[in-house]
Design brief:
Blueprint lengths: L2 H19 L9 H13 L1 H8 L10 H12 L4 E6 L5 H15 L5 E6 L2 H17 L1 H7 L8 E2 L2 E3 L5 E6 L16 E4 L5 H4 L2 H15 L9 E5 L8 H8 L4 E5 L19 H9 L1 H9 L16 E2 L9 E7 L11 E9 L2 E10 L3 H13 L8 E5 L5 H14 L6 E3 L6 H6 L2 H5 L3 E4 L6 H11 L10 H14 L25
Parallel strand pairs: 1-7, 1-8, 2-5, 2-6, 6-7, 9-15, 10-13, 12-15, 13-14
Antiparallel strand pairs: 3-4, 4-5, 10-11, 11-12
Helix pairs in contact: 1-6, 2-3, 5-6, 9-10, 11-12, 13-14
Amino acid sequence: MKKTDKAALERYKKKLQLSRSFSNVNPFETEKEKRAAIEMAKTSFSFMVKRYFPHYATAETPDFHIDFANKVKKNKTFKGFAQGGRASAKSVVNCVLIPFWLWINEEPIYLVVVGNNADRGKQLLEDIRAEFESNPQIINDFGEQYNQGSWEDGFFITKGGFIGQSLGMGQSVRGLRVKNKRPTHIVPDDIETKDLNANPVRQLKMARWIERDLIPTMDGGIRRYIHSNNKFAHKMVQTILQEIHPDWVIDQVNSYDPVTFEPTWWQKYSSDYFQQMEKEIGALAARAEFNNEPHVEGTIFKAEDIQYAPLPKLNTFKIIFGYWDVAYSGTQSSDYNAIVVQGLKDRDFWEIDCFVQQCKMSAALAYMCQFQLSLPDTVVVHWVFESQFWNDAVESAIRDAERLFNCRLNIIKRDRPRAAKYDRMLQLQPYYKNGRFYYNEKLKHKKDHQVAMAQLFGIEPGYNTKDDYPDAKKGVTDECEKFVTFSGSENSNYKSGLMRPKNDRI
């Protein structure tokens, strides 16, 4: 026996043991009680989990599992994305619990799970195969399911007619069927590897394989497709599919609140679990893995160039600007309303706060009003808006916000020099490299700031990420730059973004 085969066998034996060891079969349960329990399991996803999968139910089933399972159950042609962060039990829910739930509801199930390769696909299928083979409660309620002769790695048929099959990405699927039965339920799970993510050509090829080959293997009245993957990068197979099929469901579950660190699955995770994870692996990496906030390492702008420090008192700044890069629609695919509040102190630039959200103009204006109202009377923020984007709708929205919050923003309309946006943003690099930028240390865990950093790090030749924050950062820096002054003729040609004089460096 090959080492790989032996390892696979040992892994499967452990899954069988796990399934057997958590039996909650009641030997005194009457036939009437059993039938009632089965009927309850058919309607209640959470009860079904407790009855048949106590070894998975180490915590109470969260509402987001129940809601998603019900969505899938109600729609026999469901197409969508289980875009949950790590620690949200995506694989178990989509490859085991939901298919089993549909089966006990007497649906004909031909499950196809797809891994990033053939071996991974087999591992995913093993989980539900082991349950059918050795789960005492399943056997007690539905009889023996092990079906000799139709029970192997990557393929099985239970005595109750449940068909399971595994594939690796890109495998031939032409003619995928068992006699006259075609797949009814397809689940690609965590198919995106770093290698695939680094190859846009392969990503497009895989998206086309899913769309043109895999999904068409289903041709009956039941045709569910659930793409199970967290969104850890800006460009993925799933984002390609989402762009092509905007009508498909995107069921996104973030694992925790990035401000309070409160876990979404609060029944399972402690209130400080994800705060600790951010400390262990870094905030950007944690939010990419757990909160579907793609993390870009950065080739031009890098994480090590970001300086955090306690914010000086606001009345010590020479001048403070708030620069607004406006967006109008406020949809999931729209540009971001990006506002950067930055102050000039000595020769350095301090980012005091930021607002980076896909939202309506009214939300951005509400932020500006509330920020201004929170300031001491001695502190003034000069709000700047690009004049080429000024129109009646913008002016009306500003006036509405001012009336609502009873404040005056005094927005300055500014003409911006015409230049390629990429070239313009590149001019920020010397500021970062030479330590001219400081960030309020309280921004570290603010979601808007994390979005801002992801956008900044994504700027590189041929980038396809959003760029609203870095563009606003350049705008506010240009405004502050006008007020940088120096004493002595030796510094008359000094520009703050360039290298400091040798004796002036910290």
